[in-house]
Amino acid sequence: MQKIHAAITAVGGYVPEYRLTNAELEKMMDTTDEWIQSRTGIKERRILKGEGKGSSDIAVEAVKNLLEKKGIDPKEIEMVVCATTTPDMQFPATANVICDKAGMTNAWGYDVNAACSGFIYALTIGSQFIETGRHKKVLVIGVDKMSSIMNYEDRKTSIIFGDGGGCVLLEPDTEGYGIIDSILKTDGSGRIYLHQKAGGSVKPATMETVMNKEHFVYQEGQAVFKFAVKNMADVAADIMARNNLTAENVAWLVPHQANKRIITATADRMNLPAEKVMMNIERYGNTTNGTLPLCLWEWEIKLKKGDNIVLAAFGGGFTWGATYIRWAY
Ligand code: UT7
After folding, report:
1. Would the CB of 297 count as within 6 Å of ligand 1?
2. Any ligand 1 atom below 6 A from CB of 221
3. pTM of the complete model
4. How many domains does the chain have?
5. Strands (E), 146-188
6. Annotated catalytic residue: which of 82, 96, 256, 289?
7. Is the alpha carbon torsion for 201, 96, 107, 115 positive or negative?
8. Model confidence over 58-78: pLDDT tens digits?
């Protein structure tokens, strides 16, 4: 019998309307449009405004977009894996909230927290439930409301992040299309360079932690940059080598959008020209778990059945990895 692969059969996405431009950041902190663009490639990012709105609200819009395009009932979804670093609450899982809000009442699900690599972790997890035959329709979501954990007095970090999210539908395929391979890595010693200091079980929230702004992202940008450039490029090269992929037969690189310079370094390592690299960082910044599905969402129209696609990501943890997909439609 032909092996069952998990094929992506639909993509959805959503970015909030509000645009936080570099010009606006110039008014909020000591920075310039020139510095931000030359160091990161970012021109603007989207921000979710409105009291009481969280990551689930972004995800629900992306899910609705997918279900409407595909023409399927939310009740057909059997499982939801949600990759997020900004869950609506510490518990319950944001996946549960999304199921409720989007009417996916027959699904079960949970959250995956692997920072910026979360979407490829979740994709690999979701694909296992398809490959074993356990489920026929699995939704994998990557979403973040990064503005909820951003200190806009920290010019080194806040300028790169934005809000947004996307999702993909996984269904079984026996013709050789779908998720073919993935390499996933973690190195917990990297946590010192990128983390949230308080709000977890080690340092629960107190008046003091709030006063000290310890519930925001703490990032040592240069250190993270060095690890990201090397590891994202290495893992992309590794997945190419073990699947006999070349610059000629890879149709697209879908890289995590943290910094244009990291994306370029990864593409160079793969010998890929810029035309084969999905990049929307200039418009959305770094949406953490949202970057990869948002790229797939925007480029979906250009993808062809049989395209070899490499996803690559690097993030807090440290976590990193790459996934090889043979596009199914
Ligand atoms: O999403 C996954 C994980 N995250 C990443 O992959 C992010 C990786 N890191 C980066 O992308 C970059 O490190 C940043 C974009 C965050 C920062 O860029 P950088 O080129 O590493 O800047 P830096 O922190 O080394 O700062 C260089 C200089 C400093 O000035 P001095 O000390 O040389 O005088 C900073 O104070 O630039 C200054 N600077 C700024 N100037 C204007 C830092 N931030 C800003 C700013 N505007 N926003």
Report:
1. no
2. yes
3. 0.97
4. 2
5. 163-173, 178-186
6. 256
7. negative
8. 999 999 999 999 999 999 999
